[in-house]
Amino acid sequence: MNFASDNITGAAPEVLAALQDGNTGRLMPYGNDEVSKAAEAKIAGIFETQADVFFVATGSAANALALSVLTPSWGAVFCHLGAHLNDTECGAPEFYSGGAKLLPIDGADGKFSAGDLEAAIAAAGVGNIHHCQPKAVSITQATETGSLYSLDEIKAISAVCKTHGLKLHMDGARFANAVAALGCSAADMTWKAGVDIVSFGATKNGALAAEAVVLFDTSLTEEFAYRRKRGGHLFSKMRLFAVQMDAYATDNLWLRNAQLANANAKRMADGLDVIPGISQSQSVQANILFPKMPRSVIDGLKDDGYLFYERGGKDVIRLVLAFDTPAEDIDGFIEAARKHAGS
Fold first, then answer.
1. Which of 124, 249, 274, 309 is the most buried (most CB within 10 A)?
2. pLDDT at 343
3. Per-residue pLDDT averaged across 239-247, rounded?
4. Which CATH architecture has domain 12-253?
5. What percentage of the chain exceeds 70 in pLDDT?
């Protein structure tokens, strides 16, 4: 009965089994073992290209460390106003980069366009010694509102980055949900579209605690390695992170789990959409929805014990569905909403 986040879930059974199996034997520490190397190669294989892969424990570390190699301390990073790294990471990007400035861009549905980015660059004071200088751009896929950048939108943003000599980062905390929704490949959505580095999320989608930073621009590799160590994310027992990511990549578990989460969101949306007085405040594209409903319905659902956040506007709630959300919880929520709506 908890729809507050996809972080509420436990780990996928396949990941837990991999942890149990990987907990035997004596292997070298700090990723200098065959298990970690194999897992790095398997994650790179998802992207169908040569890439350097680094495992970390959290999405905030993945994002902050990624940005730290894209900008000097006097640089600036463009991101959306509602991006997780801008309003929910407690200054981690600024800390890890040594003080680089985030320059947020507003835009509908959690996104900004290539035109928005071009305008922000023009207003940033390029060449002015008194201003932080643009060095990188970060987009979130899927966004904090559950919307998606199309492949053409990513390519257009990348083209602006290349024109101005900026690196492009993708926060992929819900990367798998976006790939599943768009029906594209991981390669299509990243390096083929001009992305230089991606934070490849796993924790929200089946891992216990593991994320990967994937560098397509391997000129960044040496610096990233030292920054990961300095930032406290080079783990002595790296194999126990590696086995999670190995299991996540095996038999497309990452994609299958995301497809389940997205399907659960559609089930919820389809059930709510037929209730009078309830409507979606935006299209449901991945595993997050923002239904608008009468105050009495919201209060009634809370009284029934359902957990969710009120976000997205007046009388709008956020519901996040996971790969293992029970169907009976979804159907129960729909029935409770119908009851409180009086239909």
1. 249
2. 74
3. 97
4. 3-Layer(aba) Sandwich (3.40)
5. 100
